[in-house]
Structure formats: C-alpha cells, structure tokens
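Retro notes
What went well: the complex prediction finally ran end to end.
Inputs used:
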Amino acid sequence: MAVTTTPAFELESISMHYGYLKVLDDVTVRVAPGEVLALLGDNGAGKSTLLKVMSGAHRPSSGTIRVQGNEHDFHSPRRASEAGVEMVYQDLALVDAMDISFNLMLGRERMSKGLRGLLGFIDRRAMRREAQLELDALGIRTAPVTRPVEMLSSGQRQIVAIARAAARLHDGGVLLMDEPTAALGHEQTELVEELIGAMAAKGIAVVIVTHNLPLVMNVADRIVVLNRGRKVADIETSRTDTDRVVSWIIGASVQGDLAR
Amino acid sequence: MTVTIKSPSVHHETPPQRLPGRVRALVLVRDQGLAVLLVLLVALFSAWASPYFFTTSTGISILNAAAITAIFAAGLGVGVMTGVLDLSVPGTAVLAAVVMAKLLTNGMPVAVAILAGVAVGLVVGVVNGLIAIRGLDPLIVTIAMLAIASGLALIVAGGYDIGGLSQLEFLGTHHYLGIPAPVWVTLALYGVLTVFLRYTRGGYRLLAVGGNAEGARRVGIRISLYRVLGFTISALCAAVGGIVSAAYVQIGSPSASVGTIFSALTAVALAGVPFTGGRGTLSRVLLGAIVLSTISTGLLLANVQTYWSSVATGVLLLGAVALNMWTTRTTLRLLLVSTSTRKAA
C-alpha cells in the first residue's frame, strides 16, 4: 500500500487511564484504505479498550482520532458510526425472528412512496431488493434473503452481521471486528476470511481484534501487538511469522523489534 | 497497487434455495397448528353436542364470547412482542369504563365519553412506559399501576356500579349484518394492529426492539420510544376492552376482574407468542381467543360441568407450549444436521 495515501483511520498518541491505572499508554495506530489490520495482545493488554476507543464506546484520556484525515471526537458509538466507523460485535446483535434482508436494513428502512410512506408504511420489496444488492456487492450467497436469521448456522449469522456493518459504511469506511471467528468452525472461518478479503478489496479499512493467529496470518496485511497498554510491534504480516508474533504477545522479545 | 476483485464468492456452493421438506413441515405445524386444532374442536363438538353446536347462532355467540378476551389479548400480545408484560390491563380497563360511564351519566355526548375512556388508556400506557424505561421492572411497574388504576376506578365510581348505560347499546349488544358489535370492534382492532406490525416502520422496529433491544440500539433505533409505544398500545387495547365490556352489560363496574388478563394471556400463549418477545402473529392470538371460547361453549352445550373448561384450557395450554418447543428444537436440529452433512460432502 502506498505510504502517501491518507490513512482511512488514525489514532494518534492515545492514552487511557482508569484512575491510576494506565490501560493505554501513548498508542498510535494507522489503517490505510483497503488494509486489514490485526490488533493482538494477551488478555489485559489493552486491545479491548483500544477497540472501544475506536468504536466510540470509550473516550480516551488523551490523543487524537482522525477518520479520512478529519479529526473526530467520538462521544458515542453513534458518532463513530456517523463518521464512517462501524463495529461488528462478538454477540452479533441480530434479530432472530426476522429474515436476513430485514436484519440488514434495520435502522435504515425504505419507506413506501407517496401517502403510504407518510403514514409510515415500508416498502418490503425494495428492502429485499436492496439487501440482495448489498450482499451481491460483497459476494455473499449464503442463504436466501428471506430466510429468518434463527435458521442460519453460526457462520452464516456472523456473515450477516458483518454484511450489515459493511453495508452501513460509506465509501472508504472503517470496519471494526471483535473476535469475528470466535464461535466458528474451520470451514466457516474460511468463509469469514473470504468476506474480509472482499471488503478490503472494496477499499474498506478493516481492524480485527482476535486471538486466532492463523486467521491473522491469512487475512491481515499488518499486525499491531499491544502489551500492558503499550504498542510493542507494528509490522507487515509478510515480514514476520507466528513465533515472533507470539513472543511479542507474551512479552518475550520486545527489544529492537518495534517498527513504525 | 492495483486491486483486483476476483468475483469473490463467500459460499463455494450454491445454497439450496428452499428449506428441507421436513423443516417446512415442522414450520407449518408450528404456524398452522392452532387453526388445525380449531377445526378438530369444531368437529369434535359438532358430533358430541349435536344438534346444538354446529349452528350459525352458536358460531356467532362463540365469536361474541371470544371478542372481549381477544381485545385484551391483542394489547397483551403486542406488549409481549415488544418485550413487556403489562399486568395493569384489568385496572386500565375498569378505569376507562368507569370514566366513560361517569361522563355519560353526567349527560356528556356518547362520542366524548368514549374518547375520554380511550384517553385514559393512552395516559396509563404512556405513564407505564415512561416509568419502565427508567429501568424499573415492567412487571412491578404494571402491578403497581393495576393497584392505582383499579383504586382510582373505585374512587371515581364511588364504589358502586354505574348502570343504565343504554346509550351504549350500539357498541354492545347491537348486531350489524348479523354480527354483534364487539366482534366488529375486535376485527377492526386486529386489522389495524396487524397492518401496523407487518407493514409499517413503527411495527417493524417495535418487533426488532422486542427481539433484540441491544441490537436495535446499536443500529441507532431509539428503543425507549418503542418500549413506551408497546405499553401504550397495550393500555389502549385494555381501555377499548373495558369500554366494550361496559357497553355489552350497559354497566360501568369499578371492580377489576383479574381473571380477564389470564384468559387473554392464555390466548397469547396458545398463539405461540413467546414471552421472550420479538415475534408472534396477531391473527393467531385472535384464533387462540376463539379456541378458548369454543372449548367453553362446546363443553357447556355437551352438558359437561363448566368447571371442566378451565381444566381443558390448562391442559391445552401445556400441550401447545410443549408442541411449540418441540417444533422449534427439532427444526434447529434438522437444519444444523443438514448444514453439517452438506459441509462434509
């Protein structure tokens, strides 16, 4: 990826204190458009906190957040979403009884035209059509859009949740994912890997928080490792290997490896 | 760097466009079981209580008996789908009826009195909702409201029934095209609510909030608004139910009968509306209310002691819930098996 492009998403010198406890210490992370960044670290390393700062759930004690070069102050997940940063949560937050199209369009329903629309009627067919287009754009052919979400496998549900977040992004948005493959088997993980690749190919900047190292090695362009609230590694995936990543995570060989 | 999109396909195989046959059969049982049960009951009583049961007049009286229960059940059903169980329904009903009756005996026009009764429902519902969204348990809020509303009803009425409401005959015992007024009210109410739930954004979001409030909140839906709306619809239906009951007997009675809420809840449960919220079909709630009144009328005409209808209802309810659970679990198991075998192949 060319170095001169404006990062899609930029967190500069983020620090976060809970009282005397320093959870994040001067962390800087940049994600380019179309780049897949894996955020790694042991439990308590600060990666969940950093993710919450990114998604607007937490406000950092200090530091700057920029989306497409514009500075933002995320007061809430809603503000982050408006700025073009969407989050796929681990618990998916789908409505089981509704079908795929309605889950995809939840919160941005298409109203009927004319008087019916003014009365609050929705255009169900337009919603189905639009949902289908959005899935097609991501190359998802997992199940008919009229299938209720409760009748999907866990992998299909994960894909619907990711697609919902991706569909809400404008051009060159940022997608945050918390353990996207936590509950999935091998085959289903492959489907999610493909989807992540497809989204990156569309220019979406993707940030993944996970413990799944094979996933990281397969899909991530770059790896950032946190340890005790500090960034201890920031390196292209092709220039490293699993053993070194593990040693950064557990804090074995920090010296000399810090690459910016 | 050039980005080539290699026509990404997230699933390697074309997925089956239809669900497996056995799954569709189970879904059919889950969705249409109640209609089948009603047909069976009608056939049973037609033979058992012949020649009294299978007549037009019996049919109409069954519908009429179902009407009041169905009106309360509509409100409770929408409440349950939104994720709230509104126990204040009997209190709201009597308060609305008594306020209307009081205005009528003071010489107010019928339309004004009825609108005042409906307004009582509106106020109770909004208050219930506004309290509950502060984080108080809806069950406790509505139990408190049950006490408050039925107390207020007794105060307004001075502790006595307000009788002689003959102006309300048009809404109670009068027949239009051979169908009693309460049945028309019920049909209108179900029509409006069904259209609302199925075809409008409000109804769609209401169900989404009931199904997964956190998920709805994350996509930017104002969930408090919809929870208040759920309480309000419930209380409005309760008020309509109270008004129609009062019109039927032409008496505004201030004593809340808690039994009404249980038969209404039975209809909701028979309809397979899970109390966890987020789903359910209103037309089936109506069917549930009709099944209940078919049982009590049928047993009556078959000369069975009426107490048995309560026993039969309870047994039926357990059976319906068990069937519902079985179909849901089996459906899921079949789907998971079919997915994994496809993967293995």
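What we learned: Chain B is about 75% helix and 0% strand.
What to try next: split runs per interface for comparison.
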